[in-house]
Write a structure and sequence with these properties.
Length: 625
């Protein structure tokens, strides 16, 4: 089960926001004080490990301080957990937690369980059927509805009756959502929070990942044959003591109070058990083969982080193989990239992506490199919006690659990937630059920046020879990692003089042209490197996906005719294709839309649809990864 969304009202600058989370990895970005920490605090309110305790200063302040904080967590199965915090005039905070399940889902699961339990088992006590799958699921369902485990000596038929009666009589308290039912269940939500301080301290990492939840585990451990947890036994004993005390109060003390006040007074008490009151403070040491304590204090940050990531990896493996029931497990990495070189950041994100295949990860960062390593849909950007005298956080979900670059600019982050690039690709024109961006993403599910590959449009370089000298002589960039891509007709256009000057300068520096020089196109430009059928189907498929009409002139025969004409004539294929698209409600843009259409179509069967020269270029880009 995964965290699906979080709705927050009146918590600091989070006046009224909803954040949706990806099932694998979600990255939270934003300027300082935009609300990133507040968002993480709200997640930690639901954690069984170090839950965040709301303070009076956390209530949203405008002209008048809000008196109620509301945080609603929704899980991937439709379950909702609502926490309300109220601030009274004495500055004291009261808390209320409610859990809601989808009634249809509970009923469906109950019917399935009842059908799977053999009739011969129904008269047996629960404790004799602990290894039965359907019975184990019945116990979970019972706990969801009643907030506690069924007694171990309860007969199965009685547990089934109790659940069925509960479903029949359940009171639906959410008027706006009658499909939900309120229960007394307490979810076990484990949130492991690792900030930069923890990540750089392996001993603290061990405490966070492996030791902090010990008290909670003991609190919920079943300790007798009836299946009761330690919490249930202690609360039961406390209630017995409370009832005796209350009886004594009302037999003796209340009479004195009544005489003093002049009215009949009863004294009532309630037990409010704390969440995991069992404290654990454990010392963690690393010991070498000789029995000496290994100190990480003077070790490099890289060593500390590698050790930490090994511990995280082990914890994830443990979580995936453990039979222990945990409703939801989340790992939060709060700005883990601090002080990390870009190459180390790349390795870090590669690891986190691997981890997120099995467990949900939430990440915060200020790093432009990490933003570029992620899919756009994994990014949530937080911005502060000032209205009147109040500050309000707004959330933006990134859907398109173009938004990432715009977002980086808005955050004041300049693109410095050129300095850290693993490979630099210099293209003659924008069309192929856009095509390569899309093709790489569709083929490898990774943007070029994510693999530290930077593309430069050659015509935009003002002084090509100087650029080559700076790159190789001053920046000490490896000349074997500079790749040049040109059109077939490079020698026929004056506009190509700059790129030719660049190539000459690179060759003078010992650049390996045979390995790093690529000519695209059979006759003139990169578009005519593709078969006519590929061009025809790529654009047709793109129009269909965008629900646009197919022009009458856009036929395979017409595309073939244009292709043949361009072999010998002065015309360019892209211009003729643009004419064939006339009458379509979507314009033929050879610098953006058509490169994207071509890349998307070819990536589906790239071994057969891509020209050999482009496949060779992709192989070159993937070298040394």
């Amino acid at each position: 089960m995964k965290l699906k969304s979080l709705r927050i009202k009146n918590f600091r600058s989070l006046k009224d926001v909803k954040v949706n989370f990806e099932e694998d990895l979600t990255c939270i970005i934003g300027e300082n004080d935009a609300g990133k920490t507040s968002l993480l605090n709200c997640i930690m309110m639901f954690s069984d490990i170090d839950p965040y305790n709301v303070k009076p200063d956390d209530f949203h302040k405008t002209m008048k301080q809000s008196k109620e904080i509301e945080v609603k967590l929704e899980l991937s199965d439709g379950t909702q957990i609502l926490k309300k915090y109220k601030l009274n005039d004495e500055n004291r905070i009261s808390q209320e937690t409610k859990t809601y399940y989808l009634k249809s889902q509970i009923q469906k699961e109950f019917e399935k369980i009842r059908n799977e339990i053999d009739q011969e088992y129904e008269s047996k006590p629960l404790q004799e059927l602990n290894n039965n799958n359907a019975v184990e699921r019945l116990k979970i369902l019972y706990r969801k509805l009643f907030g506690q485990n069924p007694r171990g000596n309860s007969r199965i038929y009685k547990i089934l009756e109790d659940v069925e009666q509960k479903l029949v009589n359940v009171e639906q308290k959410l008027v706006e959502a009658p499909e939900l039912i309120e229960t007394q269940n307490e979810h076990r939500i484990y949130v492991y929070y690792l900030d930069n301080r923890t990540i750089e301290n392996p001993s603290e990492t061990i405490r966070t990942l492996f030791l902090k939840d010990i008290g909670k585990d003991i609190w919920y451990a079943q300790i007798n044959e009836q299946g009761k947890t330690l919490k249930e036994v202690i609360v039961e004993k406390l209630n017995e003591l409370k009832n005796r005390k209350e009886k004594g109060f009302n037999e003796n003390l209340s009479q004195k109070v009544s005489e003093f006040l002049g009215e009949n007074i009863k004294i009532k008490t309630d037990i409010i058990p704390k969440e995991s009151p069992i404290g654990t403070e454990m010392k963690v040491e690393f010991i070498d083969e000789k029995g000496n304590i290994v100190s990480f204090e003077n070790r490099g940050d890289g060593t500390k982080r590698r050790t930490t990531m090994a511990l995280v990896e082990f914890k994830l493996q443990e979580a995936n193989t453990s039979s222990e029931e945990k409703d939801i497990t989340i790992f939060i990495f709060d700005e883990p990239d601090t002080h990390l070189h870009v190459k180390a950041q790349r390795k870090l994100i590669k690891k986190l992506k691997e981890y997120s295949q099995n467990k949900q990860i939430i990440l915060t960062t200020h790093s432009p490199f990490i933003i570029n390593l992620l899919k756009p849909n994994q990014i949530r950007a937080l911005f502060l919006d000032k209205k009147g005298k109040g500050l309000y956080t707004k959330v933006l979900s990134i859907e398109k690659d173009e938004q990432v670059n715009k977002l980086l600019h808005e955050l004041g982050i300049e693109n410095t990937l050129l300095f850290f690039a693993r490979k630099i690709v210099i293209t003659e024109e924008k069309s192929f630059k856009q095509f390569l961006h899309y093709l790489y993403y569709y083929c490898y599910n990774m943007r070029l920046h994510g693999d530290l590959i930077h593309i430069i449009e050659g015509q935009g370089v003002h002084d090509p020879p100087r650029f080559a000298r700076v790159l190789i002589d001053e920046l000490k960039y490896d000349k074997d990692n500079i790749i040049v891509v040109v059109d077939k007709d490079i020698n026929d256009h004056p506009a190509s003089e700059k790129i030719k000057e660049l190539i000459e300068e690179l060759e003078s520096k010992g650049w390996n042209k045979s390995k790093n020089y690529f000519e695209m196109g059979k006759y003139k430009e990169f578009e005519d490197a593709f078969e006519p059928e590929t061009i025809y189907k790529a654009w047709k498929t793109y129009l269909e996906k965008n629900r646009k009409n197919i022009p009458k002139e856009w036929t395979l025969d017409k595309v073939k005719a244009a292709y043949e004409k361009c072999k010998t004539g002065d015309c360019k294929l892209r211009e003729m294709l643009k004419n064939l698209n006339k009458g379509c409600r979507l314009g033929f843009d050879h610098t953006e839309k058509f490169p994207k259409a071509l890349a998307e179509y070819c990536s589906e069967e790239w071994e057969t649809r891509l020209p050999d020269e482009i496949k060779r270029l992709l192989e070159r880009l993937k070298e040394d990864l």
